[in-house]
């Protein structure tokens, strides 16, 4: 997984024309329902989900991880890296995200990381950002509202998503970082971070908890807090990968 996995529009700005921005760089942007392009960024687009994205969305919808993954995503193991790839599925007829209505995003406060970043994306250069679309596609970039990249990130609540992805990235195997691929079994194990209900079922087995030295307080805290559950699952996955590799 790399910076480009956050969210890629079907008609992005060509890489050679993109302007690098720092956190202190000001830019013009405001999105609102009066714009002719309102919700067009939610149509015919590839939005790659992180485990934390899935957690927030399925919790917001009040459904199981398995149901969310089945109903709202397309998912598979990437051919080369063998890593799990989870994308929001578009409606086959309208090509819109299934979570979008005429009034806008129906899960706005729990929308994915890529949606929060829009119209920006992470750049290849450390600490840099770049516009992912131009003014022809996104009329919000023509608005008079000016804010810095940092102000935009703060306003959109990006930090918890960055922090949880940092934890996820930290468990990725060294061979993936070095050459971009790993064993198929590792990818299947990593998929557990997306389907947290399967991990929650494991915690109900006293033998499992005893073997992995998970005390009752830790288990109860994870059961009561989805974010703690994800962190615990990532810790378990990391331990399992160390045995596999």
Detailed description of the structure:
With about 240 residues, this protein is α+β, with helices and mostly antiparallel strands. Helix content is about 40%, strand content about 10%. The two termini are about 20 Å apart. The longest helix has 19 residues, at about 225-245. The chain is globular and about 60 Å long. The strands form 5 sheets. It has a two-stranded antiparallel sheet.
Unreliable spans: 1-11
Rg from C-alpha positions? 19 Å
Could you give the order of strands across the largest sheet? 1-3
Largest pleated sheet:
2 strands, antiparallel
Topology:
Layout (H helix, E strand, L loop, with lengths): L7 E2 L16 E3 L16 E2 L4 H11 L3 H8 E5 L6 E5 L11 E2 L2 E2 L7 H5 L2 E3 L6 E3 L14 E3 H7 L3 H12 L3 H6 L4 H7 L5 H7 L3 H6 L4 H9 L1 H19 L1
Antiparallel strand pairs: 1-3, 2-10, 4-5, 6-7, 8-9
Helix pairs in contact: 1-2, 7-11, 10-11
Structure in a nutshell:
The chain has eleven helices and ten strands. With 245 residues, it is of the alpha+beta class. The protein is globular.
Top keywords for this entry?
two-stranded antiparallel ribbon, globular, 11 helices, alpha+beta, 245 residues, single chain
């Amino acid at each position: 997984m790399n910076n480009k996995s956050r969210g890629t529009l079907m008609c992005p700005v060509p890489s050679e024309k993109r302007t690098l921005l720092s956190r202190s760089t000001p830019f013009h942007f405001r999105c609102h329902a009066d714009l002719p392009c309102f919700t067009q960024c939610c149509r015919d687009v590839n939005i790659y989900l992180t485990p934390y994205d899935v957690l927030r969305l399925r919790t917001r919808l009040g459904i199981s991880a398995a149901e969310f993954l089945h109903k709202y995503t397309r998912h598979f193991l990437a051919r080369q890296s063998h890593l799990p790839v989870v994308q929001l599925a578009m409606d086959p007829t309208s090509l819109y995200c299934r979570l979008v209505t005429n009034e806008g995003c129906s899960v706005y406060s729990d929308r994915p990381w890529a949606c929060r970043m829009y119209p920006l994306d992470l750049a290849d250069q450390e600490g840099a950002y770049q516009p992912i679309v131009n003014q022809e596609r996104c009329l919000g970039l023509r608005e008079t509202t000016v804010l810095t990249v940092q102000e935009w990130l703060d306003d959109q609540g990006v930090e918890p998503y960055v922090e949880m992805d940092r934890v996820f990235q930290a468990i990725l195997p060294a061979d993936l970082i070095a050459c971009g691929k790993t064993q198929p079994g590792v990818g299947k194990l990593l998929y557990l971070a997306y389907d947290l209900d399967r991990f929650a079922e494991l915690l109900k087995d006293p033998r499992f908890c005893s073997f992995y030295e998970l005390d009752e307080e830790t288990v109860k805290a994870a059961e009561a807090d989805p974010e703690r559950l994800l962190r615990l699952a990532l810790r378990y996955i990391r331990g399992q990968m160390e045995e596999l590799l």
